[in-house]
What we know:
Helix content is 74%, strand content 0%. It is mainly α. α1 (2-21) runs parallel beside α4. The longest helix is centred in the C-terminal third of the chain and has 29 residues, at 83-111.
Amino acid sequence: MEVIVYAGAIMVLFLFVIMMLGRAPWRGRAATVLRWGPAVVPVLLFLIMAGILVLHDARGAAELRMAVASPADFGRFVFERYWLAVEIVSLILLLALVAAIQLRRGEWKEDGEDREL
């Protein structure tokens, strides 16, 4: 259960970062490319993978069993074996949040608005 709460907290953190950035809308041709460009890459990857799955001959594939694990088992596995990676990721997320706040604060000062966070 704690792992689900932790993952939810990370998603809420990213939501707040996105809300704090509040960028002005882009304009012009470059804006169109920058807006739709990142969406094209996952679509192309999906189409390539779907084509591979459709064209791949899976007659010799092994049977797989479904692994059953509770959130507690998953949390125990992650925090016992990969605790250092979890801590490093949490520090990176914290640094990203601080950087987003500093970037936004710099934009406010350039706009001539005197706001405090």
